[in-house]
């Protein structure tokens, strides 16, 4: 039972670390690359072409791209019966 809790914590920690890395990469991109156009989250929401805008765009994009499949895996695995 405790290994299952550890597994959940590991996956959530890894998810948070990947989202943070994407935010840092977006910030660094906005800082050191010139001539960038404004990114649009989900092709709808424009973000300013600043380091903070790129950091938010990167973090939100990775959070969505990784979060939706992760949520589906959690949902499906919760419905599985371990006894069978």
UniProtKB/TrEMBL annotation:
InterPro entries: DUF7520
Record key words, sorted: Membrane, Transmembrane, Transmembrane helix
TM spans (from-to): 12-34, 54-78
Protein name: Cox cluster protein
Record organism: Haloferax marisrubri
């Amino acid at each position: 039972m405790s290994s299952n809790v550890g597994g959940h914590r590991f996956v959530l920690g890894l998810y948070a670390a990947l989202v943070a890395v994407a935010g840092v990469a977006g910030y660094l991109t906005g800082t050191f690359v010139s001539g960038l156009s404004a990114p649009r989250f989900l092709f709808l929401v424009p973000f300013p072409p600043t380091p903070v805008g790129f950091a938010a765009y990167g973090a939100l994009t990775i959070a969505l791209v990784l979060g939706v499949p992760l949520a589906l895996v959690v949902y499906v695995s919760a419905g599985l019966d371990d006894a069978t």
